[in-house]
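B., you asked whether I could sanity-check this one before it goes into the benchmark set. Here's the sequence:
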Amino acid sequence: MKRTTSFLIGFLLLFTGTCVYSEVTLPHVISSNMVLQRNMQAPIWGWASPGEEITVTLSTEAEGVEPISTTTAIADAEGNWQIKLPAMAAGGPYTLRIKGSNAIELTNVLFGEVWVCSGQSNMQWSVNASKDNEIEIAAAMYPKIRLFYIPRVPSGLLQKDVEADWYETTPETIPNFSAVAYYFGRKLYKNLDVPIGLINTSWGGTRIEPWTPPVGFAAVPALTSISKEVQDIQATYREQLPEKMNAIEAWIAETREALDTGAQLTQMPNNTHPFAHQQRPTALYNGMVHPIVPYGIRGALWYQGESNLREGMLYHEKMKALINGWREVWGQGDFPFYFVQLAPFNYGGRNANPLFLPQIWEAQTATLALPNTGMAVTTDIGNLIDIHPRNKQDVGRRLALWALAKDYGRDDVTYSGPLYKAMAVEGNTIRLTFEHVGSGLTSRDNEPLTWFQIAGEDKQFVEAKATIDGDTVIVSNDAIENPVAVRFGWHQSAEPNFVNKEGLPASPFRTDAW
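And here's what the prediction gave me:
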């Protein structure tokens, strides 16, 4: 009975937001086998008794060597404390000792490159379910690539911690980890030869809104209604809390008596937060992202959008909220944020529209206007009858090309396929220019370019002939004497063959705004 009563009291303390720490504790993301971000002051934080002094010592794992650094902090009135380790070059292993009323020792700690990998099912999609799974799993012997897989738990309120651990990459640890994240990390590791830390926080079928913090919505005028909903729900929940607490306190008293007398037990009064669901705004940020803030990271990867398919350019506004929101809460400036453009797929259903997907492609491409963003195009590696294409190797590789070129100084890396830049009408043709032509434009199958359309003033698009002319493409149709617009790949089933000579596909686009 004492154990049950203690649990109920502990639940009530947690429920009311009052936490009492009798000894120093750490979030799970700060643990043995972790990779800390190199070349920056890495935050280390945790909880202790208010006013307690915490000492954090970083040492090599060699015996008899002086510590690299010793830093102290004082837990605040709520028991929170944080220090920052000195910036360190890539390497390890190191030992981290945290001492207050108790002592904690973390071993096999490395410094390297840390990336957060998030999104819905195509990011969650495991190595075991991807192409060549048996070969890939057997070859996954990379002790310096470390994996941290956050469990899928939504929350209406900010959570401080997650139940997860850091693991070295082995054939035993890799099968259920994100394939895109792993192949991205492996490409970096082979090119940089430094430790890689991958944090996988993803959930199949989820929308973008649950991953976004309130500050993200608040900064985007187009999302005022969502921001207001979040504020109103939280205010209402707080207002109703005293009444709910009274009901729970009464239930605890009744339950204590029932346990003593053997009377029938009753169900605890419901206190479920309205946003404690994986599709509600902020729920996955609260439960699956906030617990790792402010862990030092290089950047983030994002593969999501299928669940926001019908939103067109509104999705661009939501991407702005997500990206700027994460950057705001992390406080590390405009860190790199690289995302995957959705693959072609024949979305069905009664109200299916084959142009919904191109409109999401357009929104994703528009998001490249945000600083330090990048997009991996996948029109050539999809599966029209499977929303989860098995080729995750190329997805991870293409994301890694952005990182290698933009973050790691690899000037020799072509990291994007052609992106539409401008058009010019030349008689009965339209000449298109592009960014990211690489070493030249080509067809990946040596066949005439596909999925180009052209329209005159009547706005009726017809199939077009497209010819490469140097670093430009000339588009025409003999039946249209005065063309005014071009579209490329503007259909959900489009798998065009237009690429640069490095084999990276062009992103679908339209020159009109009809």
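One thing to flag: Residues 1-18 have pLDDT under 50 and may be disordered. Otherwise nothing jumped out at me.
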